[in-house]
Amino acid sequence: SMAIGLQACYKNNLETLSGNTKCETENMSFQNDIKVIINVSCAISGCHNANATTTFSLSSYDDVKMIVDDQRFLKSIRHEAGVSPMPKSASKLSECDINKIAEWINSGALNN
């Protein structure tokens, strides 16, 4: 039982040291931060990829920027009224991911 106790302590310390508890939202980059979230949650999942036939694509910066500019994107991932909540039939993005996207949009939604 001593080994189990040590593993639990080690794991907790590792999480603390790696910073998993803090959500960094400063200086968000489309290429390094936002595109990864969108690819995993929206595009690669099959709904909003380049081959999308029943929806629109979110596979490029231009695609994403168009949806951001018409105010739908943030409302949709925040599950606000009047828009279709995304991702559809899946759990809401983490607050951290939503905050990263919001910060990127608030900073001008640059192709950086």
What's the SSE blueprint?
Elements: H1 2-18, H2 30-43, H3 61-69, H4 72-77, H5 95-106
Helix pairs in contact: 2-5
Describe this structure in words.
- This protein has 5 helices and no strands.
- Helix 2 packs across helix 5.
- The chain has 112 residues and is mainly alpha-helical.
- The N terminus is likely disordered.
Low-confidence stretches: 1-16
Query: Total number of β-strand segments?
Result: 0
How much is the radius of gyration in Å? 17 Å
What structural category do the secondary elements indicate?
Answer: mainly alpha
Q: In DSSP terms, counting alpha (H) and pi (I) runs of 4 or more, how many helices?
A: 5
Beta-strand residue percentage: under 5%
Largest sheet: none
Kindly state the mean pLDDT as a whole number? 83
End-to-end distance, in Å? 50 Å
What is the string of SSEs from the N terminus onward?
A: HHHHH
Helical proportion, percent range: 40-55%
Shape: globular
